[in-house]
């Protein structure tokens, strides 16, 4: 059984936080032809607070390392970073990845078999759409490090990026942490690559969200009991792809509202709001007023 771990909200976090969310991730892609940095080996990304909307930190790609700021997004499945082949203004405003400068980089022609680029230059080009824009790119395999934890995984090197939202965000790209069903292929899933290369103490990661005056962090290979407000709860993943779980109900002040008996929810660090079907939200709002 696939499982998702959840941490109760506490009062702190080290990941950089944006005040206004311009990016809504976790949407589809299509191929055409044709958080404490350096803390201990398992503690991974620590970033400084600014606001709870998008949580992002540093990832190192290549040999020698090229560093990028990325959103840690459990609602998508690939690492996406701007490439030096992208001449859009949205790319030029950010760090751009140069595969030719990395001795560990290998150009990938086709996602389904990790095949090389064709002699005629034929290769997959993927287009990924977001709530407010899209990007297109090609595939590269390279060394990827978060803190001191390193693995080798495929990534999407953007050759085109829409002006919105990428020209207006402080981070360079997106690191997808969904299950590998949402990746271009299993070889694109960073956590799966870490598991296969046995670089994690335990096969999990945890995200800790802090209050405005605290740090937040994402940790690979373990979770920190000292940051938890309650015992750890495990919930079965109901549909592989998103970290999707079933909801028995929603409660305010520990009072069940009976608005949701067979609901499903995606646990998505790349979305800044709680969202749901309009009829359930209307009932929830009405019930909340009666409770408060």
Topology:
Elements: E1 3-6, E2 16-17, E3 29-32, E4 45-47, E5 55-61, E6 66-73, E7 79-82, H1 89-92, E8 106-108, E9 125-130, E10 133-146, E11 149-161, H2 163-166, E12 173-176, H3 190-196, E13 205-208, E14 216-220, E15 233-236, E16 239-240, E17 243-247, E18 251-252, E19 255-256, E20 263-266, H4 278-291
Parallel strand pairs: 6-12, 7-11
Antiparallel strand pairs: 1-15, 2-5, 3-9, 4-14, 5-6, 5-10, 7-12, 8-10, 9-10, 10-11, 13-14, 16-17, 17-20, 18-19
Percentage of residues assigned to helices? under 10%
The secondary-structure class comes to mainly beta
The ordered H/E elements are EEEEEEEHEEEEHEHEEEEEEEEH
Q: Compute the gyration radius: what is it?
A: 19 Å
Q: Give the uncertain stretches in residue-range form.
A: 1-14, 20-52
Rounded to the nearest angstrom, the distance between the terminal CA atoms is 39 Å
Overall residue-averaged pLDDT value: 81
Protein architecture, described:
The strands form 5 sheets. The chain has a 6-stranded mixed beta barrel. The chain has 4 helices and 20 strands. Mean pLDDT is 81; it is low at 1-14 and 20-52. By secondary structure, it is mostly beta strands. It starts with a strand and ends with a helix. The longest helix is centred in the C-terminal third of the chain and has 14 residues, at 278-291. The chain has helices spanning 89-92, 163-166, 190-196, 278-291; strands at residues 3-6, 16-17, 29-32, 45-47, 55-61, 66-73, 79-82, 106-108, 125-130, 133-146, 149-161, 173-176, 205-208, 216-220, 233-236, 239-240, 243-247, 251-252, 255-256, 263-266.
